[in-house]
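Technical note accompanying the year-one report. For the benefit of new consortium partners, we illustrate the data format agreed upon in the data management plan: each record pairs a sequence with a structure-token string. No post-processing was applied to the example shown here.
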Amino acid sequence: MERDLSATAAAMDGKETVAGLKTRAPAGGLTVERFFTTPGVDPADELAWELRTASISGEDGKSVFEQKNVEVPKSWSMLATNVVASKYFRGTPGTPERETSVRRLVGRVVDTLTRWGAEGGYFATATDRDTFHAELTHLLLRQKAAFNSPVWFNVGVEEHPQCSACFINSVGDSMESILGLAKTEGMLFKYGSGTGSNLSTIRSSKELLAGGGTASGPVSFMKGFDAFAGVIKSGGKTRRAAKMVILNADHPDVLDFIRCKSNEEKKAWALIEAGYDPSFNGEAYSSVFFQNSNNSVRVTDEFMRAVMNDSAWTTRAVRDGRPMDTFKARELFREISAAAHLCGDPGLQFDTTINTWHTCSNTDRINASNPCSEYMFLDDSACNLASLNLMHFRTIDGDFDVDAFKHAVDVVLLAMEIIVGFSKYPSEKISQNSHAFRPLGLGYANLGALLMATGLPYDSDAGRNYAAAITSLMCGEAYAMSARMAGKMGPFDGYAKNEEPFLGVIRKHRKAAYNVSPEGVSQELFEAQKKSWDEALALGTESGYRNSQVTVLAPTGTIGFMMDCDTTGIEPDIALIKYKKLVGGGMLKIVNQTVPQALEKLGYPQTQAQDIITYLDKHETIEGAPHLKPEHLPVFDCAFKPAKGQRSIHWMGHLKMMGATQPFLSGAISKTVNMPSDASVEDIEKAYIEAWRLGLKAVAVYRDGCKRTQPLNTSKEKVKDTKTAVAEPALAAVKDANAMRRRLPDERQAITHKFSIGGHEGYLTVGMYEDGTPGELFCVMAKEGSVVSGLMDSFATAVSLALQYGVPLQVLVDKFSHTRFEPSGFTGNPAVPIAKSIVDYIFRWLSLKFLPSEQADGVEAAVEKQVAAEPVAKPVQVTAVALPMSTPRKTYLNQADAPPCHTCGEIMVRNGACYKCSNCGTTSGCS
């Protein structure tokens, strides 16, 4: 990829124009050192490459995307291949213009950024230009770093591409401004970006208009914004738009704002109970407002102290600040927590904390954030993001490679800085602020995997110290690099006005770095993170800073898949057992590959480690594994409880991790604190209070199962191992045995269930043995004499005989669930909202009634016995076959109300404040 850069070199005289602006002549330019690469050697040639077929299948097994002869590094997984080919390759499929190679994709982006850098005077010499090109190529091809999606979409394709994923928009108290915001948001949604706004500038519904009438208030206008977002969708796809709506706690309409989404949630429940489709995009939720935004209340320290002291809180008029309504602060706080308990919104943004850490407070205050709450800055601004893959910065001994990480920060931050001046923006205000303040959002992914591989529990002081030190090093080095760029290119235009608050914030970061505890942190890393802030402060005091902000922690959804990350953003791992879906059907069970690394780091001999892995593979939990020391169990705790275990990370552990890393971020953290379904309103109050005490800038909670949406494929579906179908060993056992029919007593208990599928009504009657297990099935259809009625009556007789001859119900459920044929459609049953056929409905209903999730049936035990006798499945590189990573088992139960993916139909999982699809890599929210 060491291309002929003569055109780029010619541009280094500083005479070309960029986006209508004259580029500055090089003021010496920057020196870029080689660390990962060798002069004269193309980083791409250091990798082994192969041709694959990128393929994504939907939930129904049909192909959603396919591209043959895709050139990828052999080290990349099929999931990364599928995501990159389907999301980032440009050109019409099937035409010569279509990109076919990761080599070409990375070259398109790196070549363009290098040319821009030369045009902008960023490189001291042609050698520095070539070094930048090689080092950035290495980082991207080796999956050590990735830019946010708009960069991959647009750079090298358009002359002046939109490269930012996150936007903040202002709104004034006039109809012109309100309608202008609707237009700006609509255009951002059209191109797949997310945006946030604080509507507290709009006068309340309790205030008068100039003509004497009463104002509508921000909540009323929110309905219009919501409708536009729902109609336009996002990126031209069927997924809902990503937007954040914020209202200050002292706004007169704050109570209406707090209740607006929960009240609409109750309406959706009523529609569901009346028989309307309850799925994420179904009629029930499409008929109510406020489903297209994340809502947050802005609270100050004054408000939180009033809550703690149970004192009064008074709202104030927008126009003149006069006192309006007075509440008990604790009662208002209770309303916030109760609404979040019911529907997940509103979250909280801590205004005092946000503006205390604001580098440009002399220009204006920070009022809002992007939809995922990690980017917080001035109104009418934008941020381009990039993330580093922490697992690729480990030494051969499993320690953290400080020097490699620092160099990667420098190279990626330089690339992001170059992007700012050469991008286009959706409005003139955003363009001006982007050029004047140049905010960046560098972050990382794979923290959860790194901690486990290092042998540190996610929920531990040592784990938090380690995470804090890495985050501190990243941010300190980024500010130091920004100061170096300022020394050559000059500080950002708004720096002089904000020098005092800016340096004050740097000193606060530096003080926090010196307060990091060394427990769990290597001496090298501990000292390096402190030194980075010493350097950042010294260089910045001398030269200023090129960028107003440098770091955030974003969800890293799609780009996390591109980098083959096991965990995204700051999240812990979801589960120790993962599944890969095979093209021909079925699932391949794989032990999380971070587990062997953790066992090695913890000092277990290879034989003991293999015993532990075999136990995990068999039992799907590491609890009770042989040789495993009790004190090491927390290392393997994940976000959700395993199917047959009891351990998981407590929600307070998530908050504490956020608290440990927040002091080392320019922005904030995109993370939803998942709470169990039995969490109380009081628990949510405790979470919000603890978030404030820990110094977080924002927090959102989500109580699992609070919404009544249901996934299109049932959460109770069992995953089949690919080496042997679940039904086969059990059926073989029945065949070999001397089968005896177990007749039901003449008088027995029975249950009758009425159903309707696509307008076809019927009744199921299940006769039961004395122990409550089913022994017979009758299916009566409303239209007697029809083909459907006759077939279902005969089928029910066959099922009854199978049950009486000892075929386990689990086998029948596994065999017949999700059978697809007509009639199919909506059912009106919230537990099974959509059926693919009458047979599908019958067995999913039987599973819900007679197969509780905790039941250990004989069939599963038989399969586990066979799997345990075989070698543990290892991930393999496969050519011409897609192996997308599937959502882990039980995850559906913990995220049963997640939406289906608009691309492939698989059920998505939470990713920060948004969702991601583990099958095709699609994300909701910011790209």
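Partners are asked to follow this layout when depositing records. The two ends are 27 Å apart (CA to CA).
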